[in-house]
Predict the structure.
Amino acid sequence: MQTYTVALGDRSYPIYIGTGLLSNVELILPHLPQKRVALITNEIVAPLYLEKFRGALEQAGVKVVQVVLPDGEKYKSWATLNTIYDALLASHCERGTSIVALGGGVVGDISGFAAATYQRGVPFIQVPTTLLAQVDSSIGGKTAINHPLGKNMIGAFYQPRVVVSDMQTLLSLPERELKAGLAEIIKHGLIRDESFFSWLEVNIERILAREMDALAHAVFRSCEIKGAVVVSDERELGERALLNFGHTFGHAIENEFGYGTWLHGEAVATGMALACDLSVQMGMLGKSDSDRVCKLLVRAGLPIEVKGVAPERLRALMSVDKKARDGKLHFILLERIGSARIRADVSPSALDRTLAQVF
Ligand SMILES: NC(=O)c1ccc[n+]([C@@H]2O[C@H](COP(=O)([O-])OP(=O)(O)OC[C@H]3O[C@@H](n4cnc5c(N)ncnc54)[C@H](O)[C@@H]3O)[C@@H](O)[C@H]2O)c1
Ligand SMILES: [Zn+2]
């Protein structure tokens, strides 16, 4: 088992990464003010892991109230949040009752927001079971639900007390979900660490084959990279925006095709390919580096092209993206593999060249 500590002063917390950790509740017990938890999961994860995890907690003397949500992004909603509050109130959960999220990013985000708001805040614990949740959504304390007018529009910054990432849960993850999580891992190498990117080039097949040690290293290094960015800029006033590499294009793709058609990681992969091309157009990145990125994305089974949408349409969607501040489009671009920069001075002609090339 490896441990990465997110160093946020008195809100610091450990992320434990290893295999078989679901039954190792010793990692969680020290963080519970009361031997009582509300365990939130969904209908897909429950039959896979709930009994094992719940059993381990109960064996350690922890009382468990369980809440099983329907599966899917569309349930990251106000209505679902209310059913969580209903369950917490009906079973008299108190301020010392911890909320534990067992599942992917959807369960993590909505449970985190419930924890941030129930009785003005109760302890929160993340047990992420998708690759995306382990390398991205469980780190950094962003919690949210969706609003009909926008994704993640209602939420809070609320850090967990501990994160437990069990690599064994990834064995049941659908292939497409695994690859989508891999996109964010590749992103971490691209924005911060060329040697990690090189490691991914060597080990991509081992990750796709779900070799535990390869997965654990990829998750651990991602936690280190995202954790360091979060620690330097918890509320996304500056550097944390670098984590949005590939996302300006990616959100436009998700918006155009409707959330759920493309998985987020797939849209981000294509977005990263476009952002690399734009970095080349801006004279920041060498063409050979951009090719190197695309090659790894393809080997990871991720898309790097988008069809069936006009470049003008994507440009329009990008300008309503939340990264469009002061009327200017902000792009995260690469100056080399391992180093990203925020640029607000992308010329319309450079953007046109990128969009025209890729479609
Ligand atoms: N808070 C953040 O900083 C942050 C960052 C990135 C993404 N997100 C959010 O995360 C969400 C996406 O997360 P996700 O990709 O994990 O999606 P998800 O939670 O929908 O999980 C994907 C699918 O896998 C299933 N699943 C979960 N664990 C499984 C397992 N071990 N075996 C088999 N199936 C399993 C889920 O039930 C679901 O059907 C989005 O709502 C996004 O906005 C948040
Ligand atoms: Zn993302």
User: Anything to note?
Assistant: The pocket of zinc ion (ligand 2) is lined by residues 136, 184, 247, 264, 268 (CB under 6 Å). The chain has two domains: 2-172, 175-358. The chain has a mean pLDDT of 95. The chain is about 45% helix and 20% strand.
